[in-house]
Amino acid sequence: MGSPFRQIRSAGFKVSLLTVAIAAAAPAMGQVEIERVEVIGQAVSTDKALREQKASDSIKSVVHADGVGQLPDDNAAEALQRIPGLSVERDQGEGRFVSVRGIAPDLNSVTINGTLVPAPEGSRRAVALDVLPSELIQSLSVTKTLTPDMDANSLGGTIEVESLSAFDHDGLFYTISGEGSHDENVGKNSPKFSGAISNRFSLGDGIDNFGVAAAFSWQKRKFGSDNVETGGAWDFEDGARLEEVEQRDYEITRERTGFGLNFDYRPDDLSSYYLRTLYSKFKDTETRNASGVAFEDPQLSGERGDGEGWRDLKSREDTQEIKSYVLGGERIIDLWTVSGQAGYSESTERDPGGIAGAEFVGDFSGIGFDGNRKPRVAVGSDFYDPAAFTLDEVEWEKVSGKDKEKNIRLDLARDYDLAGHGAQFKFGGKLSRRDKTSDTEVWVYDDFDDVNLAGYQSGNVDYALGNYGNGISAGAIEGLIGGLDRAAFYDEENSRINDFDMREDINAAYFMNTVDVNDLRVIAGIRYEGTEFEAKGTGLRDDVYEDTKSRNRYDHWLPGLHLHYQLAPDTAIRAAWTNTVVRPTFGQLAPGFMIDGSDAEFGNPDLKPLESMNFDLGIEHYMGRAGVVSAFLFYKDIDNFIYNTDLAGTGAWADFDEALSFENGDSAKLYGLELAYSQKFDWLPAPWNGVLLGANVTLSKSDATIEGQGAKRSIDMPNQSDTVGNFMVGWENDRFNMRVAANYKSKYLMEVAGIQDEALDLYSDDQMFVDFKAGYFLTPNLQLTFEAQNITDEHYYTYAGRRSYNAQYEEYGPTYKLGLTLTHF
């Protein structure tokens, strides 16, 4: 505790980085009295973020619970989008996966209380952060440059989730909230309740040395969207001719439940021990009605011709759960610090069985579409006659997946004197064992004798993008197939080739040394990670099933260097050279395959991991209370870039017409600039002293090369937006607060078409979401809040090659919320 180096470290000015803008955006939460606002309001939230970011040896961005609670965000993903360089992938308008500095979500890692969070989805590594309610979180941080004592498994950054501790507050703390929301699209209301409590107790001879904290959240949200999509099925050889178009209406009930229980024990000033637990459950009940037309010959907008029409129903229930348990502690023994942690986390996805598709089809003449960007189906009155559609097939699907990760970590550090300078060497290791399984079972019911849509209809579908008509009744479809022999319709092919069991064992060790020379801190070290991978699955070769098994082993030595120079009391320069490694996604590594004559589709368990050399350089300057301006440059040189391709005509696939898989590219490059500014104008006279302002923007550029079928071309990295930005303006006093927050990201490449089909590449269009929140303290402890999300009714749009040609258009509408929060400190 009293070593010279430890004193130097605690006194040193550490990086606070860009998201002070976010912490500064948090309004006062709690007591109206000025002295109480000083304790629990916006300024303290900013100070908490500053202290954590300054204490970090990495370039790190932090949002604390006070800040998260004051932003109009339902989950961790939406809170993180306010951080510079971060954007989100949305599902039905709600933030889900997080992209860091333009790097796809699968190439970043997520930890909860220091242990890796596995992904419930069978094919992904990315963790859907909409599973985590924001109320269960004490802080969110994103580390963009990794020191050797951190897992090296991220290209963009490591997202760290910390849950509530009793030592975050003095004495008894509790808060409870109730909220009602109204979704404009479906016209339905939804409830939400959350709360947290913590307190400290005295054990043995200690005083307030044992803490217990608990948090819970429950929400049942009813919402939906209206959609029209082509899937990019355009033929540009003879004008812009379309092959098919579909209208979709989604109605969803999303139930999110979370609970956390944490224990802390600090018997003396030299030791601390903790147990962190977190449980989150995310349940979607979805009904999707779809109707569409496929043209006999591709048509131009405004043309009419012959084709097939269909009406289709999907009705399913999908449940995802995350469980995390972390036991750890730290002990200081003279000049040594010993810390360790054991963690277990488990993610599951389960669909107990539902209608994956119930399709009625019919033949029609005089059909077409109007408009290329938001096409409207053009059909006659016979398209709305249920007798014109006969049942083609019903697909019933059952899905279960599990991703388990166990780890144990040990770190040892010793402070020492190096030629009169405070220094520390640190070394340690980590063992991680991960097991991911996926099991799908499919039944396809067909050969129905003249069963038409009459008798299987539900009420009129509320579809805002055109005329739709009646939907399909899930209950009627379930009643129809319930009386059939299930075994006779089992689809062995689709039930087996997508199943897998993958094991990934990682052994890691590192050494690093830190030295402070006057105003300069230098951290240098190296990390070793050895990976053993095994995959088991099933392939289908010309109607014959084959068991598959693949093994792979690779080793990486990852050096790193961090520099931090205190240019002036309020100005710091930071630089870092780091090396990271990211394993391919489980979908890319899938051991299953399907070969049918001259066509093949398969995963590639022999893929090499992505390796990245990263350079970061930046400066930041602090301006009084809650003020910062900063600029950071970054550059990433990525080897073994992975892309989807067609291997037909090459190597073992020389005689094939199509061989779809994944391959390693040579390299990809990403470079960019992050700028941020935030300030509270509390030195101005009233009422201007209540103004809050924050803005940040990340400008980036990427370049990657793909090749196949004897051709080569350059592309942007998928999911990488050239521009990501946030803007916030607000005002607050002791009793009232309000703010408007806007989040923008530019277009990005979403899906690469064939190597020679650049015109069919799919892009996601730019988006800007604008949200509003206001709060009024009815009493010093009771706050009434109002929120309006997506107040500009922003939509989601993807296109094929050029912005004029639809791949998917989807509208969500705004959501309004009214809430009441009681807080005691």
Automatic annotation (TrEMBL):
Query: TonB-dependent receptor-like beta-barrel domain: from which residue to which, for each copy?
Result: 369-791
Topology with respect to the bilayer: Multi-pass membrane protein
- Can you tell which superkingdom this protein's organism belongs to? Bacteria
Record's keyword annotation contains Thylakoid: no
Q: Which SUPFAM superfamilies match?
A: Porins
* Keyword Transport in annotation: yes
Q: Which subcellular locations apply to this protein?
A: Cell outer membrane
Cleaved signal peptide residues: 1-30
NCBIfam families, alphabetized: TonB-Xanth-Caul
Which family is it part of?
Belongs to the TonB-dependent receptor family.
- The name this protein goes by in its record: TonB-dependent receptor
Which organism does this sequence originate in? Pseudomonas matsuisoli
